[in-house]
Design brief:
By secondary structure, this protein is α+β, with helices and mostly antiparallel strands. Helix content is 42%, strand content 19%. The protein folds into two domains: 2-12 and 73-143, no CATH class; 16-66. Strands 1-2-3-4 form a four-stranded antiparallel beta sheet, covered by helices on one side. A three-stranded antiparallel beta sheet has the order 5-6-7, with helices on one face.
């Protein structure tokens, strides 16, 4: 029980699994543009525009969720609040919040959501050391 009460600092690293999944998703979206036939004379321009949108999505997702550049939940500290019986989060900015009910825990993936923050923190097992990832999953399973 002592490990459950101790605070847990989350500073995930680059995840090769997450990078592979994002690459497959965005390359698949680009490949699906090729067989689409459009009856308009501007079909190539429309495909090019949609392709640029997919590339912009890949860039944004990679910067924000894979590399965690300016992510609001990076470096947060989780601790169990015994009074309310829930997990609390302290962000690096000093903002304190309660964990949202939309958190997800799986042996291969954890998604953290904080109330009043719209961006989730997606963590794969290779982004944290195994002990921290296990503690995080136990915290989420028993406190949320």
């Amino acid at each position: 029980m002592s490990s459950f009460i101790s605070p847990l600092c989350l500073k995930p690293r680059f995840s090769k699994r997450f990078a592979l999944i994002l690459t497959i998703l965005h390359c698949g979206a680009l490949l699906l543009l090729l067989p689409i036939t459009l009856p308009i004379e501007f079909a190539l321009v429309i495909k090019l525009f949609i392709g640029l949108l997919v590339l912009a999505s890949a860039l944004h997702t990679s910067r924000r969720h894979l590399l965690l550049i300016d992510h609001p939940l990076y470096g947060c500290i989780l601790h169990y609040d015994e009074d309310s019986g829930c997990l609390r989060v302290v962000l690096q900015s000093g903002f304190k919040a309660k964990m949202a009910s939309g958190c997800y825990s799986h042996p291969q993936l954890v998604i953290l959501r904080v109330e009043k923050k719209n961006e989730p923190l997606i963590i794969f097992p290779d982004a944290l050391d195994m002990q921290t990832f296990r503690h995080l999953r136990v915290h989420l399973r028993h406190a949320v």
